[in-house]
């Protein structure tokens, strides 16, 4: 068994000092080596050191090791008694067992009592058995060493108490740190398990674009694109062919402070190419500076392919319907134009068949319009205010039937570069919806105004209205609100999708603000061409 720390600090130095005195005695103090009392004390010190090392004190009852410093007092008393004539100051060696006792776990009064008694034993040993009352005054001097050791013991105990308190505090903080470390490790394991469970690729980067955290799904995307921090990867735009510029890649955009979502990119090449819907958000430090970014990627390849397949199906089926419907309408017109007059009731049947065929043909045309990504437009200088007036006149009869009053408020003229047929379709769709979804009547307002960079067109009604979520979805193809589906209002959910496509093809935007029971407000924003807006009215009219 290895020697304990108290024995290391106290027993070894005591033994070394006594051994040095014993070894140098034949040369420096010839009579000391032949003194049996000194030899007994010298041997006892060596035996106590051997016991400190050899005896398995940890297996014995607690405090058993303290028998060593108690016996040290006896050994020091023998050494001092044997060397009294040549080395009377050896009594100071009691400081080692005193230090040992005061650093032990014994109560203070026990440690101090043993220290004082042991020191008194060392000083009084030479006088044991030869007490002379006449020498009582000289006996009082024997108390000097015990008193000094008492003071030293008190100082050691006080210092030990402070050190022990600091040690306890350090141990407490160490336990707290270990608990925090274990908790942090557990949280990291849970976080890692969560990140590797979700099917969304997550990447955290620092301010320099170096990856600091990623999950298993993102590692798959990185391998697919051949991405690494040094050489980037294979990223393509929505057409799957055009390489994505560095400044348009998600990490770069996020590190410049941009926040975005649902941005479609393609990674990889060939048959392994995948579509990713990306989102990013910058991470800022306490000073508000960008310290990194978090990028999320979702594999939407199947969804994109399903949408493409749906568009292809709609386009194909619409083309297949268009030809026979045109033929049906043609033959119905031939029947009506035949020189032989049909009975009135047959002519009525044919009129109904013709109207329904035209309705289906218009629906097919709408389907064809929504099948492509963008609507083709042919812009030319047009007065938007005139188109508004024409659309209002065209919808006046329908408005009167629904008890709706149409009001316009537009600057005149509003010259800009637009496709008049397509924008007329936009106006008709918005006005038709405003009238259709105002079953209780009311007022539909059309307002248009021009700013330095855009023309804003507003169509507002006080009809059924929609919730905020419905207003966000209303431009999706085939979407109809629950209220519209449960009512008798006709519609296929294509008009606003076509309207949005036409507006975006002009480089503009459209959005809706609505509230249930309070109506809706659709706002179309179209860019203004500065040169066209300053053209004289006459010259523009001639060009039209």
Describe the structure.
By secondary structure, the chain is α+β, with helices and mostly antiparallel strands. The protein is built from 19 helices and 13 strands. Strands 2-1-6-5-4-3 form a 6-stranded antiparallel β-sheet, with helices on both faces.
Name a few traits of the molecule.
6-stranded antiparallel sheet, alpha+beta, 544 residues, 5-stranded mixed sheet, rod-shaped
Instruction: Please list the strands of the largest sheet in the order they lie side by side.
Output: 2-1-6-5-4-3
Rg from Cα: 50 Å
Mean pLDDT: 77
- Count of helix runs: 19
Terminal CA distance reads: 109 Å
Task: Please summarize what this structure is.
This protein is of the alpha+beta class and 544 residues long. The protein has helices at residues 5-28, 36-54, 67-82, 95-102, 108-124, 136-140, 144-197, 216-225, 250-255, 301-337, 344-371, 384-394, 396-401, 420-436, 468-473, 482-485, 495-505, 530-533, 537-543; strands at residues 200-206, 211-214, 235-236, 260-267, 274-284, 290-299, 380-383, 404-410, 415-418, 442-450, 454-460, 509-515, 519-527.
């Amino acid at each position: 068994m290895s020697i304990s720390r108290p024995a290391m600090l106290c027993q070894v130095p005591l033994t070394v000092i006594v051994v040095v005195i014993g070894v140098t005695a034949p040369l420096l103090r010839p009579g000391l080596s032949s003194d049996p009392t000194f030899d007994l004390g010298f041997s006892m010190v060596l035996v106590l050191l051997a016991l400190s090392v050899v005896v398995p004190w940890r297996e014995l009852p607690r405090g058993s090791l303290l028998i060593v410093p108690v016996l040290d007092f006896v050994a020091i008393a023998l050494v001092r008694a044997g060397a009294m004539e040549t080395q009377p100051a050896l009594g100071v060696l009691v400081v080692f067992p005193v230090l040992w006792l005061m650093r032990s776990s014994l109560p203070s009064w026990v440690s101090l009592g043993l220290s004082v008694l042991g020191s008194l034993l060392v000083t009084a040993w030479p006088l044991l058995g030869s007490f002379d009352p006449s020498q009582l005054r000289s006996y009082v001097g024997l108390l000097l060493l015990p008193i000094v050791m008492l003071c030293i013991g008190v100082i050691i105990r006080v210092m030990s108490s402070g050190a022990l308190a600091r040690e306890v505090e350090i141990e407490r903080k160490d336990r707290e740190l270990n608990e925090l470390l274990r908790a942090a490790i557990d949280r990291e394991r849970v976080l890692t398990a969560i990140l590797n469970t979700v099917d969304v690729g997550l990447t955290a980067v620092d301010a320099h674009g170096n990856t600091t955290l990623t999950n298993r799904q993102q590692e798959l995307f990185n391998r697919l694109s051949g991405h690494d921090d040094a050489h980037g990867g294979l990223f393509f735009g929505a057409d799957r062919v055009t390489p994505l510029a560095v400044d348009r890649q998600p990490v770069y955009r996020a590190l410049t402070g941009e926040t975005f979502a649902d941005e479609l990119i393609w990674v990889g090449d060939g048959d392994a190419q995948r579509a990713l819907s990306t989102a990013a958000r910058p991470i800022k430090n306490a000073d508000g500076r960008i310290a990194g970014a978090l990028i999320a990627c979702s594999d939407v390849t199947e969804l994109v392919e399903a949408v493409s397949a749906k568009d292809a199906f709609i386009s194909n089926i619409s083309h297949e319907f268009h030809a026979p419907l045109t033929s049906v309408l043609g033959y119905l017109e031939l029947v009506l134009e035949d020189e032989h007059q049909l009975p009135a009731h047959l002519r009525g049947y044919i009129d109904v068949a013709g109207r329904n065929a035209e309705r289906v043909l218009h629906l097919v045309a709408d389907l064809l319009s929504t099948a492509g990504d963008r609507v083709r437009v042919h812009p030319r200088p047009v007065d938007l205010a005139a188109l508004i007036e024409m659309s209002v006149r065209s919808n006046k009869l329908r408005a009167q039937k629904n008890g709706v009053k149409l009001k316009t408020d537009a600057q005149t003229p509003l010259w800009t570069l637009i496709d008049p047929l397509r924008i007329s379709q936009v106006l008709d769709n918005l006005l038709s919806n405003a009238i259709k979804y105002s079953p209780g009547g009311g007022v539909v307002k059309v307002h248009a105004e021009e700013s330095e960079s855009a023309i804003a067109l507003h169509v507002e009604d006080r009809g059924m209205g929609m919730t905020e979520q419905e207003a966000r979805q209303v431009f999706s193809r085939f979407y109809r609100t629950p209220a519209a589906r449960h009512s008798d209002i006709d519609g296929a959910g294509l008009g606003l999708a076509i309207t949005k496509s036409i507006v975006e093809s002009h480089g503009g935007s459209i959005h809706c603000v609505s509230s249930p029971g309070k109506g809706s407000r659709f706002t179309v924003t179209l860019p203004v061409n500065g040169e066209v807006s300053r053209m004289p009215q006459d010259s523009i009219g001639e060009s039209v």
